[in-house]
Amino acid sequence: MALHPYDLYDVRSMLSEEEQAVQDTVARFTDERVLPIIGDAFDQGRFPRELIAEIAELGLLGSTLPEQYGGGGLNSVSYGLICQELERGDSGIRSFVSVQSSLCMYPIFAYGTEEQKKRWLPDMAAGRVIGCFGLTEPHGGSDPANMKTVARKDGGDWVINGAKMWITNGNLADIAIVWAQTDDGIQSFVVEKGMAGFAAQEIKHKMSLRASVTSSLFFDNVRVPEANRLPNVKGLKGPLGCLTQARYGITWGPIGAAIACLDEALNYSKERILFDRPLAANQAAQLRLADMARRITSGQLLSLQLGRLKDAGKMAPTQVSLAKWNNCRMAIDIARDCRDLLGGAGITTEHAAIRHALNLESVITYEGTETVHQLVVGRELTGINAF
Fold it and tell me: Locate the Acyl-CoA oxidase/dehydrogenase middle domain: which residues (predicted)?
């Protein structure tokens, strides 16, 4: 029996019928709706907003949240498969869904009041309200504790001053989940578009995630009512808890990007004739293709086990760090190697490899750089914090 070239260990057989159905649905959406337009969207530096309604209709926003809040009630493995298939199309599409689901809907669900959940989550699941996550600051990067954005209590309101940087969905967003220093530690606020003193400025001239909106956020005495403060968490554990949710999905996403690149390189190598034979007939090409398949297989098994641990309530943040580190590195190396196998053709966005390689430069950096995740694992092994 021939093995599937992108699933050498038959990971598919380890999925439930529901998980397989979720994967098939999102794969079909990616094939039919994303892939035909994403190259042009990347070239134009345009996020394809026309896909938002369909993404929401498929139940991909807040897919793991309870149905009473508009979510799909899916398990973590299903969410991972959603991320994998979306990023097989483009990292920007997966980033949009990750931010909306894990970084915006999740904190409202986990840290908000019942009134806040009912107010925001159903509309967010339906794509009527788009969110962004305001944590990273211009000078902060990997050190979120060095936060300069502040919120001070003023009567029944809060007044926020500061700035956030590299915010996905920023100029698309109707609300921003903003983290700020207060006299009582770091807290979170839902800042609404149109509030006086709140502005978003889109970041241009990007060479990565071009089919995604990335922005700076500015807060100049923005007055936010107490009703918009998420009351059920204080300190860094709040934003870090959100990032753990998002990083879990990111361990799956790059698998999709890597599969897209391998698929392209494999087909190209069979069709490209050099020195009277297909490129795929060369040992050097086969060694490289085989190594890509090996790495993808390892990444698939890592993320599947991580998902099973998450669904069992046993997932540790260090395990997420290990998988994000491994799978992002795997994918970016594969994308670069596939670009090389395509030769000159590989530098154009008519092919997927260069687009995925450029996107993955962001994916390997955001929500914890590779170095940060290496140090997280090192701390786990040694018991010594080397940050």
Answer: 132-222
